[in-house]
Model the fold of this input.
Amino acid sequence: MLPRAYGRSKYGAGRFLGGFFDLLTVIMLTRYNSKPLHVFGILGVVLLLAGFSIQAYLTVGWFQGRWIGDRPLFMLGILLLIMGVQFIFFGLLAEMIAYSSRREGDYSVREVRVVEPEEASSKSLVSLPG
Done:
């Protein structure tokens, strides 16, 4: 490979990380825009299974007489279980938001009426049309 003829490369770890996050954004917006639970649910189930398997392993050790209270693996298992539940509920919440934005009768603002200051001061209550 030939050395660079001029200057230094500006492509480093920070730029790579930014490009990776841009790629994730595009994937989320194009593939999972209408089904966010597919992403967060799968991630949540994987974390739940990992946490459950760690806790099952420690439970077997506890029945064999080993103390598990001071082991870091115990805390990791609990953390994974909690994160799994949170990701699943986050996916369900995102699914509800995506569903409500697809509905026909949404409550978005269609028209904004600008009221002049002198008109607003002459009325005690401003009513919006419709």
